Amino acid sequence: MAVQKTFSRKLGKLLKGAALATLMTTVASPALADWKRYESPRFIIYSSGRDTEAREMLEELEKFDRIMRMFMGSDIDGVPYRKLPIYLVSGSGLRTIMPDGNENVAGFYLPTDEDIFAVATRGTDNHTLKHEYAHHFMMSDFSFPYPGWFVEGFAEYYAPTLFKRNETQVGVPNPNRAMALSYLNWMSMSELLANRPRQTARNRDSYYPLAWLLTHWFMGDETRRAQLHTYLSDVGSGADPVTAMERATGLSPVELRRTLRRYMNGRVPYMGVRTQFPEIEISVQGLPPAADDLLLLGQQLKVATSEEKRAETLNTIRQRAARYPNEPLALLIHAHAELHNGRDPAKAASLLEHLLTIDANHVEAMQYLARAKLDLADKAAEEDDHDGSQRLRREAQTLLGRAYQLDDANYITMLLMAENRRGEPSYPTDNDMQILDIAYTLAPQLGSNRYNYAAALLSRGRNEEAINVISPLVNNPHGESPAAKELLLRAQGRTEADEAAAEEALRRKAAEEGEDEGTDGNSGEGDGT
Q1: Which of 205, 277, 294, 375 is the most buried (most CB within 10 A)?
Q2: Which residues, 6 or more positions from 511, have their beta carbon under 8 angstroms from its beta carbon?
Q3: Closest CA to 446 of 209, 40, 112, 140
Q4: What are phi and psi of 271, to 5 degrees?
Q5: What is the 3-state secondary structure (H, E, C) of 349-398?
Q6: pLDDT along the chain (529 residues), means of 10
Q7: C-alpha angle 288-289-291 in degrees, rounded to nearest 5
């Protein structure tokens, strides 16, 4: 195997009995709306399109998960603590969910305090979805201080996987990445190994293609896969990623660059694996009529949008929700809009209390009502009503306790429990640590879970554990997190001055590498074709 499983969290006794059983196929209820919910052992798809498209996507994703588990040495039949929801939409549907996003995107993946979900557009080849799921998968079962280039390279390596009748092709060359490398100036290998793409000033466009190529080079040969394992273990233990590469491969940055050029100019291999997958069992459920009007707007509430758009969406939801005064889905989305877009927790609480008279076991309603009460508690504290604030916090805690009894594998409940305790003089108690650990275990993809748990670990003097938890967030190639970086430095016993000195040393090393290779990023062994 290229990389053995090195870091995994287990729920243990606290979540014994969590509902993780594979669902059996059922006959779909008569459709109440165009929208349906398709569920397999590891995924949930919401779609208003043809049944066949949603089913085919589920089947491909289930195979994709199994293939990555096979190659990563994990339990091939394992299921996650939480299934990933995916919204299969048209282009206009994608813009409804993310109105301020890039119009050219084929989909996206978003971990938030309220949901972790993906959006895919109909009629695509699922490459973007598989790429994002590879990130989700890595952060779930293989959360480790991987360097940024490998985080991206891993996703790019697996995303083009093709499923034939009796064979799965893994590591299929990505022609777009290869073509880009033939005309782009390459960044230095030192910068690639040490940095995330937004840290790099020169030739940053080559970051993702090079991350793909380097990962592909390692994975294309058994000896190099062993070297990759050695390298990743070394970096995960705190070694300098540039020095560790030379130690693992025997190649200097310049020699590695030349080696990659030769590899790209030759026949880039892929692996064909004889596979037979079990039949995927899928259940289908029709959604209520309110889904046609409100489902995608409900997801938009979980995405960052402009103030102008927030106000527009609030008005639209108010108008549409009025058509369904006693429909739980409409009440939930309306309350969410009042809570976040309208900033009116009292109105949100009233709607949610009405919802709970209709469905007393609605976990999401309990969670949002707890959020509303926490907001009201903060307002009461600002007005010096400390008794009222404490009463509201106790009410929120009671709601979360009920939600936990109904669904003990829901990260949002654990996250809110921890939020309710944060700021108390005794925080973090042993119980707080247990709650933070469970929230992190259930949703390691969520940055706030990582940050909060790492900060609590650091306050307990458990620095090595804090480093393991926070490093993947710092190394995330998709975005900077200054707060996470500062926390990591504290856990490592380093200062910002130490970091600045290391970055200056890296710049000098990259400059020396450029001098050795030539000023033109495409000079040397020749361009790839």
Answers
A1: 294
A2: none
A3: 112
A4: -105, 130
A5: HHHHHHHHHHCCCCHHHHHHHHHHHHHHHHHHHHCCCHHHHHHHHHHHHH
A6: 33 34 36 83 93 94 93 87 95 93 86 96 90 91 78 92 91 86 89 73 83 93 93 88 94 94 84 88 95 98 94 98 97 98 97 98 98 97 95 97 96 96 92 96 93 96 93 78 89 76 65 56 35
A7: 75
| The CA-based dihedral angle spanning residues 413, 13, 79, 365, taken in that order and rounded to the nearest 10 degrees | -20
Cβ atoms of 161 and 169 within 8 Å: the answer is yes
CA 190 – CA 194 distance, rounded (Å):
6
In this structure, which amino acid lies at residue 200? T
According to DSSP, the residues that pair with 107 across neighbouring strands are 120
CA atoms within 13 A on the CB side of 262: 6
Map tokens 């090079």 to a residue. 210
- Residue showing tokens 């609605």: 362
Residues 6+ away with beta carbon under 8 Å from 300: 96, 97, 98, 99, 313
State how far the alpha carbon of 202 is from the alpha carbons of 83, 183, 189, 434, 507, in Å: 40, 15, 12, 44, 11
Compute the distance between CA of residue 136 and CA of residue 523 in angstroms, rounded to an integer: 37
Comparing CA positions, the residue from 141, 134, 133 lying closest to residue 117 is 133
